[in-house]
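Reviewer 2 asked us to include a model.

Predict the structure of this chain.
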Amino acid sequence: MRQKLVRTAALAIIATCAAACGGGGSSSPTSPTSPPSGPVTITVTRQAGAQSFTPNPASVGGQMVVFRNADNVIHRVVLNDGTLDTGNITPGATSAAVRMPNGGANYHCSLHPDMIGAVNPASGRPPPICEGIYC
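Predicted model (structure tokens):
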């Protein structure tokens, strides 16, 4: 009998605590959110056409990207359509984070126009066809 009384009291305490800790009566569960990941790094490796950037093409459409200059001269990355310009990136430095277009893009180093790169669209398709003087 005493064991039954202790068990009933324990259940009453558990029920009271559960009701008090209910979080305001919200019936919808909350889903955990993952922390935002940092930007993807594209490395400026050297002056060698399509081999000047790694990876190239980069599968980063719609994502935040930084360009890290692993070369020993200044570079400046510009989208071919002119909508993005990193500014000068000194040797060993990294550009500010920039968001790449969802639809992909082609880019080049404005200081060394033979250095070219591409970004695949967010859909995973190949990058847009490069047109113009930087292809």
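The helical segments are 2-20. Residues 1-31 have pLDDT under 50 and may be disordered. We have added this to the supplementary material.
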